[in-house]
Amino acid sequence: MLEAHLRRGLSLAALLAAVVLTSCATPEPEPVAPPPPPPPPPAVSLNEGVAQAAAIYVAFMREVGTIKAGFPDAESIQAAIRRGASYEPAQLSRGMIAYGSILALQSPEFVSGVRTFAVDPAIRQDVIGKIIADPAYAASLPGADAAAGLIVETIGRDSAAMMVIAEAVEGDAYTIQERNDPRRRWATVHIADRVTRLEGAKSLSALRMLPSAEESARLFAAANTGSGLTLTPARADAPYTPAVVRSLALAALAALGAGGEDSRANTEALTVEQNSEFCLNMSKLMLFQCLAASRPSYEDMFCVGRHVARDLATCTAQNITPAPVAASPTAVAGATPQHSPVAAEAAAATTSATTALDAVR
Fold it and tell me: Where are the alpha helices (DSSP H) in the chain?
């Protein structure tokens, strides 16, 4: 009995000792919750205004690309003049740059390269600020050569297509005068109301161009998803023209999530490029002078080839090619407004369809 009491006493003492030891032990620290992950970078975002500007360029180039040599009658030449004159130079220039930005956004290499700077909010904001301050900064970002290649390749095709039309239409202006060409009968007749025709071309040139809703939606989707356009991959090394630089800057802002509706002031400013607008403005001036001097229909035909198709080819090529673009004596050329040969010609007002045609007869 005594022995049992002793065992119970010892057990109780051991239990009390364990309690004392436990109370003296250092408590385990509470586990610290990991910091929340950083928010994901904003999605690629380019506003509808840029897509609408690009749609104007795409639709006009498609429409003017339907002009073909072999005009069957005098009215078909007048229709070509109306088609070719119906662009406002500043809008077309801005549309070309806007379209270039959407082309650049079809480059996964460029978009992913730019988006590496979007992970850290501070770095992202710094890069955005640098692009806005100096658009040329975008040309130094990863993948810029791949994006520029898409711009140069695609718009270069537009330029080449216009040059093919120019060569064909200008050539037809000579062919139609040959005695064995049955069209010669009406092609050599003087145009009845030349003043109205000229004023009509001037009026069309001043009208604001409206974007196609369908084309705008297609380009808007392509810009924000990076897909939907059938393009030929290409690379273009620096240096880039101001127009290509501005297209890259627009695309870079979009890739950083800084090209959306709340960024329209920045994106609209980037579509303005003075040399590009000057080239197209001079082209229009030369077209008006050509039409003012033209009398028979075959001379109007020459005006279409020279100052619609050829000048569009030259201006688009000038926008994507850093080197000077070789041009015909009456075509638009020159990288800077101050020294453009066309500006001198326009000021002297010496170019006419008759002079150009007579020079090779």
Answer: 2-24, 48-64, 74-85, 89-104, 108-115, 121-133, 144-175, 184-187, 194-206, 213-225, 242-255, 264-270, 274-293, 297-304, 311-320, 341-348, 353-360
